[in-house]
Amino acid sequence: MKKNLVKGVALVAVSILGVTGLSLSPANATAANKTVIAQSGNTLSGLNSSVNGKNLVTNVEVTAPTGAGFTYYNNKTQLIRNTAFGTFKITQNTCATNLVFGCFKVTYTIKKGLKYSDGTLITGQDLLLSHAVSNSDYSIKAGLGDPNSDAGSKFDSLGYGGAYDENTRATSMNLSDDNYSVTLSYAKFMPDWQIMGPGPGAVHALVGLAKGKKSLQTARTNATYKAEFENAYYTSIEALPPTDDEDYEAALEDRTAARTLMSRMAQKWSTAWNITTVTSSTNPLLLISNGGFKITSCGPSSCTLDRNPLASVGGSPKKTGNMERLIFKFPATGTTFNPNLVGQAIKNGEVDLFSGEATAAFWSTVNGDPDITASRTSVLLYEHFDIRTGDASAANSTVNSDGNCAAPYDGPFKGSTQRAKDLRKAMMLVVPRQTIANTYIGKVFDPGFTGNSPMLNSSFSLTTEGDYSKVVAGSSSYVNDFTKDQATRNAMALALMKKYYPNAGPGSDSISVKMLTSTAARRVDIALQIQLQADKVGIKLTNTASTGWSGLLNCNNYDVSTFAWSKSAISQTGTTPQYASDGSNNRAGWSDPTLDTLLKKFEDTLSATQLISAKIAAERQLWSNYWTLQQYQWPGVAAWNKDVKNVLPNPLNPNTTWNYWQLGY
Amino acid sequence: MLAFIGRRISLALLILFGSTYLTYQLAAYSGDPLAGVRESTDPNKEVIIRELTRTLQLDVPPPARYFLWLQKALGLATGTPDFGNTVLLRFPVIDQISAAIPITIRLLLISTILAIVLGITFGVLSAIRQYSRLDYSLTFLSFLLFSLPIFWVAVLLKEFMAIQFNDFLARPTIDLASNLVIATLLAVIITGFVSGTRKRVLITFGVSFSTVFLIFFAAGATEWFRYPSLGIFGITLLGASCAVGFTHVFTGLANKKALGAGLTSVALGAAVYYPFGALAGPGTNYPLMLAMAILMLSSSYFVGYFFTKIDKGPVIRVSMLSAFFVGLFTVLDKLMQTWDTYYELSNGRPIETMGSYNITLQSNDFWVVNLDLLTHLILPTTALTLISFAGYLRYSRASVLEVLSMDYIRTARAKGMPEREVILRHALRNAMIPLTTLIAFDIAGLLGGAIITEAVFGWRGMGSLANEAIVTQDLNLLMGTFSITAFLAVMATLAADLIYSTLDPRIRIRK
User: Fold this and answer.
1) How high is the mean pLDDT of chain A?
2) Which of A382, A585, B265, B277 is the least crowded, having the fewest Cβ atoms under 10 Å away?
């Protein structure tokens, strides 16, 4: 046996030694790398993110480098004007003196000579399409259908609804004689006019698709297509002469033809770009770009974009980075991506860029690695604690999904009496904001964290916005109460409670409060933290964690709730729906005419200083009502291969590739 | 039999109906698919909510909505089964499942087969050497592996078998200290499998240590890990070792016919080494490879058949297994020869931590593409095999031990039957009966996916789909994945019942 064993081992050894003796010569070094691989948080579901159901982060990320427009957000959430594409300015603003339709006008002018990747000139006709997909009045008048009806518009667009739609008409967008400018007319002054402008859409490609073309067309054909679209765009909404008019038949025929073309275009616009695979056989009309990059291939795991040879004349900002290829890698797990996986992938050189929600595992993997730059960021998602004061606003009255909700609201925090305000303030004071912020910010990055993480002290500015500190300073007399240590705040809360409940104290259960949260561990934990402190001042807080919590937000059965708001853009009036008496996001019955007046100011033309003053005034009024307490802004993290230059993480999407023209090695 | 199958299928349909109905209701009432939209401050969120409510038919109560889903899923209205679209990405569920099934099979089939083969082999070895050093070593190993959480194993594998290994490949030499550590560790493991006197153990340790040290020294010196190859010499040596090994297991080395057949198959394999290299170029394809495999195996069958006139079975087995492994080593060698090209194409990081293939790889070379698929299988397959191997090992050990204590085994031994025959023909076959249930369910469970493994290695298989469906409250996706897995589970039970009666003639289906 011994002999056999030695024989066996020797045989294996000789085999392997023989194998290892064979070796080949080394290969040449690889060429200089100009490819950047960005990890997306979910999977691509379509190339037109304006179609209903396709407005996903990855769809926007992948298509953003293929387009350039009048503006973009930088990493400081500032809206930057892209003069390489064109300019825009207010050309009429007389609404203050004469409030009629058209009293506010903005003119957008495209820089002459810009071209799409197929060589076609970019003109004002390309801007018209954005109005057709955002204005309900146009859709109805052009015979494309009412976006607000069950059948909807033939343009399956998510652009309908909102301030732009409500304040423009079918005829709002007019093309200049030279075809390079459009002027937008509004019903009133639009405070967020700068983010409402049109973007270019390659209408010649859309007409080609509507006509069943499967290849790029000649310059002459494309010019004809543009003219056809312009004609159809306007003719579709023209009123017909009386039926007995001699031009009626001709006008009807023209309008029918125009509507037929618009209808086919709408159908193509809504469906043709809903693709997730791009190969060499994909219709090139779908891949026309005026950005710095063009999509060359897409599959279930990735999309590859290569530099657009005509990028310098497409209107994207001037190229300063040497990136030639940008690959977006999609998670295999679809929409439930675990960022922890990316840490090791970046270390292994599989991924160059990633930005997402912070987790301890991800941070510990990337932080301190000599080959990786890791950066703490914040995402535009913030936790808040709301107190109900009455029935949900009329705008929300029909959304209530629980038929058993009591009405009218008759809880301890009802109304605007001093007693209600004092009790609300007591309730807010016991919310252990610092502990909560430390748990969900500091300890995410360092489990042994013992310092103080930043709390969110404003309802009108996020910590990532430039005016945050000024707005907070302006309302410091209120903020200071809520930044004291917890023992002091509990004492203040107890004093307020004793004004109305002399026996209030730990465990006295002087008032009962019902709380609503989701069943997410984070929210249940926050509720528990609040419950522990509330008990010390005699508030008996009972949490109802419900999987269907979001449908119960209007329900009067709950006195307080905690959840997060997410923002997708920075706008002057963006906060109004939460706090205005009739606001669409006001679900706790808040109503304050003084605050409503202050919120109206956001609808005026405001300079940066005036905006800060308006925010401070509204912020102070909001604080004085003790309706809501902001807790913290969710932490984010970005990590990238140290060799990739000019990565500037952006809280708005696209997060790491927004400045693709600057990226490179 | 047909009546039995008919009854079981009817019962299965009832179970499927009940389970899908219950799952649908539980899932529908467990959350709000619109929760994410409601937290948004988008000005047009009400439009989105309205659109989603219409699309997902959320205005219909779940008990009634189930029947709308069932009607579509069975294709009652259109004649084509339709599981609907996913909520967020709007992809047809049926497409998602169709894409996920092959990925899951690729991931789980190899690891399940490896776990079954290794688990049963070592389980039997452990049982027939009960209370030996080997038994204790395997028991320790199985409990250790059994207790490892897969997400932790995955993180370790990624760190050491991907990140560190890729770093190592940039300069693939092994320093003295590392070589000493590797040799000591491997020698300890090998020694753990040897029983006998202390002297024998020490000799084994010494020989193992020296051998491993020499192998790794040679591999480091020649940068073998960067430029690997087996060559005709290596293939012949490894093939011959296999032929000797299989002869030893199936017939004993005294059977010169079996040994001759095995070695002849190895020689045949070596003889076609160069023709294979010429035929299987970058443009080769699976049908050609399959044809060559069939040719090789059928040749080895005839080698075994003509080598002996009596008791042909074991000889043919040795011959075919030897041929199979020579073929495997030849393919492995071809892949190794492609390694350098693959290394360059993958920018010097051939082992990835995420995904089932390298998305940046630009090659149509059959060998490069397959090497890429294989390198992406290494980590998840290793993790899954390590974890599930332990279960099979413990089950098969217990099962064989029980059978070995039976009277008929004692009788077989008493009548002078060789131990090899007793184990392979009598004990193993009977020990397989309880294992059949386990294997049947594991194979059916394959399509259910491995949620954690798929998630940590970034594979979009059935497990990932199910996980996504649960997390995003995607009822269509959840019901799609659940229906497939539930159907297979029910079918597996039926299959297990039928296999029982084949394995054990005493088990018969009653009327």
Assistant:
1) 87
2) B277
pLDDT tens per residue, range B330-375? 999 999 999 999 999 998 999 999 888 888 888 889 999 999 999 9
CA distance readout (Å), B311 to B246, B316, B319: 16, 9, 13
User: B248-256: long-range contacts (C-beta < 8 A, 24 or more apart)?
Assistant: B249/B420, B250/B314, B250/B317, B250/B318, B250/B420, B250/B424, B251/B314, B251/B315, B251/B318, B251/B420, B252/B418, B252/B420, B255/B314, B255/B315
A302-307 vs A325-329, strand pairing mode = antiparallel
Which residue type does A344 have? Q
B32 and A549 within 8 Å at the Cβ level: the answer is yes
Q: What mean pLDDT comes out for the span B301-313? A: 89
Q: Name the more confident of A656 and B498.
A: A656
Cβ-contact A180, A110 below 8 angstroms: yes
How close A228 comes to chain B (CA, Å)? 31
From B34, B215, B458, residue closest to A20, measured CB to CB: B215
User: Distance (Å) from the C-alpha of residue A353 to the closest C-alpha of chain B?
Assistant: 15
- DSSP label of A24: -
A513, β-bridge pairs? A541
Q: How far lies A104's CA from each of A81, A98, A165, A186, in Å?
A: 20, 10, 15, 5
Cβ pair B55, B33 in contact under 8 A: no
Q: What is the pTM of this model?
A: 0.81
Q: Does A665 touch chain B (CB under 8 A)?
A: no
Mean of pLDDT values over B455-476: 86
Domains and CATH numbers, chain A: 13-68+288-371+642-662 (3.40.190.10), 86-199+203-215 (3.90.76), 392-635 (3.10.105.10)
Token readout for A414 is 């009802």
User: Are A333 and B89 an interchain contact pair (Cβ–Cβ within 8 Å)?
Assistant: no
pLDDT in tens, B153-183: 999 999 999 999 999 998 888 889 999 999 9
The 10s digit of each residue's pLDDT in A311-350 is 567 888 988 999 999 999 988 765 556 777 888 999 999 9
- CB within 8 Å: A566 and B237: no
Burial class (CB in 10 A: 0-12, 13-18, 19+), A450: exposed
Residue of B502, B460, B406 lying closest to B98 (CA atoms): B460
State mean pLDDT over A613-625: 96
- Distant-in-sequence, close-in-space partners of B310: CB < 8 Å, separation ≥ 6: none
Residue of A336, A342, A516 to mutate, testing the B interface (most B Cβ within 10 Å of its Cβ): A336
DSSP string, B403-470: HHTSHHHHHHHHTT--HHHIIIIIIHHHHHHHHHHHHHHHHHHGGG--HHHHHHHT--SHHHHHHHHH
Of the pLDDT bands very low, low, confident and very high (cuts 50, 70, 90), residue B496 is confident
